[in-house]
Each structure stands twice: as C-alpha cells, then as structure tokens.
C-alpha cells in the first residue's frame, strides 16, 4: 500500500462536530483505481445471490456477504490498509482499531435510493461508536447518489428517523474521485438518492471499531446484526472482546503488536 499523501483536508476536523467529513486524496488515485477491477469481479461474485430489491439498492441490507478470508489479496490489502486504519482511529479518537466488516455499495444506473438509517442500529458491539470509511472506486457525480447526512445527528443517539431532515441540517457530499474518502460515525443518520446516471456507482464502505470493544447479543436486533454476529464475530461469546482473524487489528498507535503484525489477527 502506497504511503498517504500529506494533503489533509480542513473538513477532517468537521467529523467531531458534524459526524461526517470528506477527505480528499487520502489514498493515491492510482492505488484505488488498481483495486477497482478486482473489487468489481469480487462484488459480482458476492452479489450473485442478491434479490431484485438488493440489486437496485446495490448492497444487501440484511446480511454481510463480504469477508476478508475469501477476498483476493489486493482487496484485503486495501481494506486492511494502516493508512485507512489510522484515519479511522483518529476519527474515533482511539489508539487502535479493528475492521468489523466491509460492504460493496454498487448502486447500478437507475438504482434506488438508500433510506435514512444509523449504522449503529445493527452493530453487535459495546463501543460508543464505529466509523465507516466510504471509498468510491470510480468518480461519483452529483447524479450518482452521493451520501447525504443529517449533520450533528450523531450527538443524539438512536433517533426517530421520520422527518429527520427537518430537525438537522442536511449535507450532501460533493462529487468524489477515487482516492477521496467520506467518513461517517455509526450514529450519524445518512441516506443516498437514486443513481440517476447510466453508470454503476462503485463504492466500498469499511467499518472500524475501537480495539477492546466487546461483543453483545443480537437479540431483538435487525437481521444485519445477527449476520455480523454469525460471520465477522463468529464464535465470540457476548461479553468477550471482539478480536480474531475476521476482525483484524489494522492500526495501533505506536506500532502493531508483533503477533498482530505477523498474523493479521
Ligand atoms: O452507499 C450508500 O448508498 C449507503 C452507504 C451506507 O449506508 C454506509 O456506508 O453506511
Ligand atoms: Fe449506512
């Protein structure tokens, strides 16, 4: 993975206040563009079983269909990039982060809107928040369904999403290029418009949690929560720390412990 370019975006400091921000050229465009082909093939394979609704949305809303164990190495390398891990750790204000899961949001031309939601609603962990990095693998124009946020909504916990756009300022992401990143907190309400272009909006969302968070029961939660528990957190009892190969440590301030560095677990 190529080193991060020293081009911090002033909007990064918005994350704490707004619950989302956009960072330009966090990764070299060519690094992300080189991953676009392998991702396209992998997403096509993993999305083969999606129903019509999910295909139009561009992702499964009920189960996690991606996993690091089956992903080609070029995809694992991008998802587990310490450059991205550090951005996630800084956003969460923690020393070390693990990847919980990643998801392809490949909204086809003409694909439907993503409704308002808060990601924390399906996270089976005890942490205060997670952060999601949303990376476009192709240029995303205004007509392709950029992410839209209820700014500041992450301050207020679980929300009634009806009429949320009347209660918080609504912020639409500017057009993005490969290498740019959009960050949102697990508590930030967000959505996207339909893809009104003729091109697929190829984007990958990687979700990170603070190292040390514990697993909690998915009882009473939505299907995605049970799916994460069964897949990413398989075999870890509620109450136990969420760690292991399926939720690798990808960044630790001051350096990775030797075992983690050697085995990625
Ligand atoms: O790409 C989208 O439309 C939705 C993405 C999303 O909900 C997320 O990354 O958490
Ligand atoms: Fe989301």
Automatic annotation (TrEMBL):
<protein>
    <submittedName>
        <fullName>Phytanoyl-CoA dioxygenase family protein</fullName>
    </submittedName>
</protein>
<keyword id="KW-0560">Oxidoreductase</keyword>
<dbReference type="Pfam" id="PF05721">
    <property type="entry name" value="PhyH"/>
</dbReference>
<comment type="similarity">
    <text>Belongs to the iron/ascorbate-dependent oxidoreductase family.</text>
</comment>
<dbReference type="InterPro" id="IPR008775">
    <property type="entry name" value="Phytyl_CoA_dOase-like"/>
</dbReference>
<feature type="domain" description="Fe2OG dioxygenase">
    <location>
        <begin position="93"/>
        <end position="212"/>
    </location>
</feature>
<keyword id="KW-0479">Metal-binding</keyword>
<keyword id="KW-0223">Dioxygenase</keyword>
<dbReference type="GO" id="GO:0051213">
    <property type="term" value="F:dioxygenase activity"/>
</dbReference>
<dbReference type="InterPro" id="IPR005123">
    <property type="entry name" value="Oxoglu/Fe-dep_dioxygenase_dom"/>
</dbReference>
<keyword id="KW-0408">Iron</keyword>
């Amino acid at each position: 993975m190529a080193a991060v370019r020293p081009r911090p975006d002033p909007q990064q400091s918005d994350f704490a206040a707004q619950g989302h921000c956009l960072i330009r050229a966090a990764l070299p465009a060519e690094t992300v563009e080189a991953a676009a082909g392998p991702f396209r093939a992998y997403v096509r394979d993993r999305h083969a079983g999606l129903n019509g609704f999910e295909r139009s949305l561009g992702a499964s809303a009920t189960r996690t269909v991606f996993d690091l164990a089956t992903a080609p190495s070029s995809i694992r390398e991008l998802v587990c990039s310490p450059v991205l891990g550090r951005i996630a750790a800084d956003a969460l204000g923690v020393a070390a982060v693990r990847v919980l899961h990643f998801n392809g949001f490949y909204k086809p031309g003409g694909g439907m809107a993503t409704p308002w939601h808060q990601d924390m609603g399906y996270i089976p962990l005890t942490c205060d928040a997670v952060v999601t990095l949303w990376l476009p693998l192709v240029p995303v124009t205004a007509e392709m369904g950029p992410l839209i946020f209820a700014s500041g909504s992450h301050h207020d916990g679980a929300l009634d999403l009806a009429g949320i756009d009347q209660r918080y300022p609504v912020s639409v992401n500017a057009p993005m290029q490969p290498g740019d990143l959009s960050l949102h907190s697990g508590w930030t309400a967000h959505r996207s418009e339909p893809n009104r272009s003729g091109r697929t909006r190829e984007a990958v969302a990687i979700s990170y949690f603070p190292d040390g968070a514990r697993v909690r029961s998915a009882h009473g939660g939505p299907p995605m929560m049970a799916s994460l528990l069964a897949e990413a957190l398989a075999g870890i009892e509620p109450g136990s720390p969420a760690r292991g190969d399926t939720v690798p440590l990808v960044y630790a301030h001051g350096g990775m412990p030797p075992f983690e560095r050697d085995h990625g677990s």
